[in-house]
Design goal:
This protein is an alpha+beta fold and 102 residues long. The protein has 3 helices and 5 strands; from the N terminus they run E-E-E-H-H-E-H-E. The longest helix is centred in the C-terminal third of the chain and has 17 residues. The N terminus is likely disordered. Bound molecules: L-tyrosinamide. The site of L-tyrosinamide has 13 residues, from strand 3, helix 1 and helix 2.
């Protein structure tokens, strides 16, 4: 802890105990039923991807079984999963979306 003099005031600089938040991957899983176009829309709407980026990620899920859509602090990752699953169910698609700690 380094002390600094500002005029007549002695300020003790506190060593910061603030840690960066733990981060979580949001992952999309493949299935045989959800239309490719729908997955592209999900990636554009909830993960701010361009049509080209969304298509690449969708194809990676389709061929490899899963892909990372984004990495976020816990609350945001949880919200993304809820939004994606809610949107998919509203359209009667079985799309799965999960989060994993990094
Ligand atoms: N496999 C699906 C199909 O052939 C497409 C798909 C891609 C589904 C990604 C889910 O997360 C997914 N229609």
């Amino acid at each position: 802890m380094a002390g600094k003099h500002h005029g007549s005031t002695l300020l003790e600089a506190q060593k910061s105990k603030v840690k960066p938040p733990r981060m979580y991957q949001v992952i999309l899983l493949n299935d045989d039923f959800t239309p490719m176009d729908f997955v592209v829309v999900v990636l554009e709407q909830f993960f701010s991807k361009t049509r080209e980026q969304a298509t690449q990620v969708m194809l990676k899920v389709h061929t490899e079984g899963r892909a990372v859509c984004g990495v976020y602090p816990r609350d945001i990752a949880e919200t993304k999963v809820e939004q994606v699953v809610g949107f998919a169910r509203a359209h009667q698609h079985p799309l799965r979306c999960v989060m994993e700690g990094t």
